[in-house]
Specification:
Mean pLDDT: 92
Strand order of the largest sheet: 12-18-17-16-15-14-13
Number of helices: 5
Distance between the termini: 12 Å
Bound molecules: FE2/S2 (inorganic) cluster, fe (ii) ion
Shape: elongated
Radius of gyration: 22 Å
Low-confidence stretches: none
Helix content: 10-25%
CATH topology of the largest domain: Naphthalene 1,2-dioxygenase Alpha Subunit, Chain A, domain 1
CATH class of the largest domain: Alpha Beta
Order of helices and strands: EEEEEEEEEEEEHHEEHEEEEHH
């Protein structure tokens, strides 16, 4: 787990003057939006008095009041008021974390605050582009964040796990496999990129309906991973009937060693004005796929990894990107 890095903590719309408790990298944190300044505040979720969770408290102005005995804690973590006392112990303080809002997401810096550079927040400009329609979703998975990330680094699952939506189960044993696969993976600086092109591939019902496709297509998947675990995927589907593109962004944040938060931005450049799909269609379909297909699979993998004592994976050729990312993570952790 990297510490000197920005982790996505919440969608901006989740944060208000109502405190939100969320564990990030094993650290219980209370998030709220300061009522006067509008700043996003992140504090250790404990009161310096007697450890009541501040998330049970109430935001008053730019501070939070602990509901147990009314102590006030400011956005820098210092206690500023104790009822019926003229002074406050200088030791009455909790840790505060740097935060930043970007791309409709709120990020928190878990490591050394002096190193918190907002310029290192991952670039995802299409999430706020006028030419794209975006839905932002947040999920919780009972799986290590890397296992959830591996699900996105591995696009070959789309044809099988998502056969009811995107995929076609192309390449099944006993069937003619006339799909041509090309895949290139490159590592540059900290980022790993992959391009996978499948020609003459059939589509599942959901993807066929998005583009009005009736015939097989060429599906090009461009992926980019950057540490600690942001994966941008550009998915293009085309044939002589249509050409449609999605940019989807996946950001995994560790909660504990075996649980994570998963943020998904799903962005499209087609059918923006009318018709199918609308944003609500997209949200229902995408969240359905993740909740009913990806997360149950990843949680089952997590259980098996525990049961079988973390056995060694045997990679296939389509796992090239996943392997390159794991190698880069190992290098960065050295
Ligand atoms: S525990 Fe918070 S005010 Fe006492
Ligand atoms: Fe998936």
């Amino acid at each position: 787990m990297f510490t000197d890095t920005w982790y996505c903590a919440a969608r901006a719309v989740e944060l208000s003057t109502q405190p939100l408790a969320r564990v990030i990298c094993n650290e219980p944190i209370v998030f709220f939006r300061a009522a006067k300044s509008g700043d996003y505040v992140a504090l250790e979720d404990r009161c310096p008095h007697r450890q009541a969770p501040l998330s049970m408290g109430r935001v008053v102005g730019d501070e939070i009041m602990c509901v147990y005995h009314g102590w006030m804690v400011a956005s820098d973590g210092r206690c500023t008021h104790v009822p019926h006392q003229d002074s406050v112990s200088p030791n009455a303080a909790v840790r505060s974390y740097p935060t930043s809002e970007r791309w409709g997401l709120v990020w928190v810096w878990i490591g050394d605050p002096a190193k918190a550079d907002e310029g290192t927040i991952p670039e995802m400009p299409w999430l706020v582009s006028d030419d794209h329609s975006t839905i932002l979703s947040c999920f919780h998975a009972k799986a290590n964040y890397q296992l959830m990330a591996d699900n996105l680094l591995d696009v070959s699952h789309a044809d099988f796990l998502h056969a009811g939506s995107f995929g076609s189960q192309a390449g099944q044993k006993g069937e003619t496999d006339d799909v041509k696969q090309r895949m290139d993976v490159t590592t540059q600086n900290d980022c790993v990129r992959s391009v996978r092109i499948l020609e003459n591939v059939a589509l599942g019902p959901m993807a066929s309906a998005w583009g009005g496709f009736t015939k097989p297509i060429t599906r090009t998947t461009r992926q980019r991973w950057e540490p600690p675990n942001t994966i941008n995927i550009e998915l293009r589907m085309e044939n002589d009937e249509n050409c449609i593109t999605f940019n989807h962004d996946h950001v995994m944040t560790p909660e504990t060693a075996t649980t994570c938060h998963y943020f998904l931005g799903f962005t499209r450049d087609f059918n923006l004005e009318s018709g199918y799909p609308t944003d609500e269609d997209m949200r229902r379909e995408q969240e359905g796929v993740v909740l009913n297909e990806d997360i149950p699979m990843v949680e089952a993998q997590q259980l098996n990894k525990i049961r079988f004592g973390d056995p060694v994976d045997i990679p296939g050729q389509a796992d090239k990107f996943l392997i390159a990312v794991h190698k880069r993570i190992a290098e960065l952790n050295r």
